[in-house]
Amino acid sequence: MELTIKNVTKTYADKTAVNNVSLTITPGVFGLLGANGAGKTTLMRIIADIIKPSSGEVLYNGIPIETLDSEYRNIFGHLPQEFGFYPEFRVTDYLEYIAAIKGLTKKDTKQRIEELLVQMSLEEVRNKKIKKLSGGTRRRVGIAQALLNNPEVLILDEPTAGLDPGERIKFRSLLSEFSKKRIVLISTHIVSDIEYIASRNAIMKEGEIIQTGTTDELIGSIDGKVWECVVDNYDLPWLEKKVQIVNLRNEASGSTTVRYLGNCPVAEGSVSVSPRLEDLYMWLFGSREG
Q1: What digits encode the pLDDT tens for the residues 248-273?
Q2: N or C terminus: fewer CB in 10 A for the chain?
Q3: How far apart are CA 72 and CA 75, in angstroms?
């Protein structure tokens, strides 16, 4: 099982959204990390066969997805950033409708919907209209529809937007289990969505893939560039002008513990600390001064 993105480019009149992207994705969770506007959603829409690339191709098990056509859609699940629904649909009506589009039998539809209502904590809202649900609950409905046909390839674009921390943890556990024999591609700018469950990651910036690898391989590129120090609060504005700060923690003593990025230590008492994926994200996408 292999999804191959081969030299894919998508250009519009005034910009190149995706520029010569090549990736090979195998079973497990694959994270696509990048800031808003990096080109992630355009790439996801190409992989989902919603839009066509200007050049290049997407292949599943060596066959172009255009050739597979309905065979590809039958093994595919997709959660876009904004999923569409008829305003008057109730949750179960909507899931039954999507199941019919995906070709599930009546028996499989009923069983799968009941499973997903439990997994996504939607039992209590099963008969409510989707338009009346909160943003987070609506997002869980969207995740449920993407999982209806037990897809071999699951594409999720910013899947945890609107979910509370507890829902995010539960969702990540679900995906980790689901991905054991399936391809799961998550596009996000939320580092915690993929830091602990992705077997491999790609980082996208300005339409291009600039780094790929496991989390350990990626964060190894900024080893020795992450520092922590404790500063008096009146020194904090000075330090903020000198470095890219990743995190702050107020201390009871009137001081602040600062985690920052830099090629060398700037503040007195700084110690080198192990990098995390959040540090790499800030290194690549944050604005650094000094």
Answers
A1: 999 888 899 999 999 999 999 999 99
A2: C
A3: 5
Enter the tokens of residue 22: 């090549």
CB 145 within 8 A of CB 94: yes
Residue the block writes with tokens 């969505």: 193
| Pick from 52, 43, 51, 48: nearest CA to 18 | 43
Handedness of CA 2, 101, 46, 143 (dihedral sign): negative
Assign residue 280 a region: left if phi > 0, alpha if psi is -120 to 50, beta otherwise? alpha
Contact 202, 43 (CB under 8 A): no
The 3 state secondary structure assigned to the chain is CCEEEEEEEEECCCCEEEEEEEEEECCEEEEEECCCCCCHHHHHHHHCCCCCCCEEEEEECCEEHHHHCHHHHHCEEEECCCCCCCCCCEHHHHHHHHHHHCCCCHHHHHHHHHHHHHHCCCHHHCCCEHHHCCHHHHHHHHHHHHHCCCCCEEEEECCCCCCCHHHHHHHHHHHHHHHHHCEEEEEECCHHHCCCCCCEEEEEECCEEEEEECHHHHHHHHCCCEEEEEEEHHHHHHHHHHCEEEEEEECCCCEEEEEEECCCCCCCCCEECCCCHHHHHHHHHCCCCC
Q: What is the pLDDT of residues 28-85, one digit of tens each?
A: 999 999 988 899 999 999 999 999 999 999 999 999 999 998 899 889 999 888 777 7
69 CB-near residues (< 8 Å, 6+ apart): none
Cα–Cα distance measured from residue 82 to residue 45, given in angstroms and rounded to the nearest whole number: 12
Give Cβ neighbours of residue 78 (< 8 Å, ≥ 6 apart): 44, 48, 146, 154, 155, 156
Whether pTM > 0.90 for this model: the answer is no
